[in-house]
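re: that chain from earlier
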Amino acid sequence: MVDAERRLLANALLDPSNQRFVLLSDSCIPLFNFTTTYSYLVNSNLSYIGSFDDKRKSGRGRYNPQMSPNITIQDWRKGSQWFEVNRDLALEIVAEQNYYSLFKEYCHPPCYNDEHYLPTLVNILYGGLNSNRTITHVDWSRGGPSSTKICG
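^ sequence. v structure.
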């Protein structure tokens, strides 16, 4: 999934007029009209990637210690695979190789790249560019590898 996300971003970055990049599920239902959502995103200096320290088995329990010292358990984050990023952060995500290769090598089920790579990467390197919330509502209370989502 992360490979596909990076390819989608790389392709979208080819058009210099693209300044914001949104990845949503086809099952997302907007809570606000397009004009409101568009205005909110284009007028923000931040990106929207949910990133939180989940101390449960479905969060920190998926951490592979072989990622250390580059990624420590304290750096490890979880979030929804749906995100919105500005052009600067999209460029960084596509160009970044160090953490990407660690995830590719060491993140296998029960670790899910799409729920941990971007939240962890942004937490470590680009925290100041992130709102630390997503543009979707995600309910992780049921646990497990998948979430219940309501899109905003």
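The chain has five helices and four strands.
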